[in-house]
Each structure stands twice: as structure tokens, then as C-alpha cells.
Amino acid sequence: MKNRLRELRAAHRWSQADLAARCHVSRQAINAIETGRYDPSLPLAFTIAEAFGQTIEEIFLPDRATTNDTTTP
């Protein structure tokens, strides 16, 4: 899953540690989410979205290349 965390953090002038503190997680967790090594749980995704005043869909984007969507257009 792709995300816009780095972009949004920069716009708010927050460090990874700042966002982590707002979301009650470690800075390492934020780094892992940003780099795509970890997909957040749904509750954490909601917390992150709330911190930025956006919806989950505005922050987290499905990686279409890795989805197993078997429907045809």
C-alpha cells in the first residue's frame, strides 16, 4: 500500500517523532509505514488520518500492481 505520510508531514513541518507522538506509536513505526515495510492497522490508520484532518482514503492508496483483483472492467 502506498501512502502520503512523508508529503503530509512535510506540509505540517512535523518530524517522524512528532507524528509518532500524536499517534501514540514509535518513530520507527511511522518510518516503517512511510517506507512501505509495514501497513498500519485500521485503528492506527484512522488515528493517522485524524491527525492530518483527512480521510484514510486521502492518505493511504492501494498499490494496484500488487492487488489480487480478479474483476474485469
Characterization of this structure:
The chain has 73 residues and is mainly α. The chain is built from 5 helices and 2 strands. It has a two-stranded antiparallel sheet. 12% of the residues are buried.
Strand order, main sheet: write it out: 1-2
Given the C-alpha coordinates, what overall shape results? Answer: globular
Mean pLDDT comes to 91
Along the chain, the helix and strand elements come as EHHHHHE
Strand content: 5-15%
What structural class do helix, strand and pairing data support? mainly alpha
Number of helix segments? 5
Portion in helices: 40-55%
Number of strands: 2
The radius of gyration is 13 Å
Sheet of most strands: 2 strands, antiparallel
N- and C-termini, Cα separation? 21 Å
Poorly predicted runs are none
What's the layout of helices and strands?
Blueprint: E1 2-3, H1 5-12, H2 16-23, H3 27-34, H4 42-52, H5 56-59, E2 60-61
Helix pairs in contact: 2-3
Concise summary:
The chain is mainly α and 73 residues long.
Task: Give keywords.
5 helices; 73 residues; mainly alpha; two-stranded antiparallel ribbon; single chain
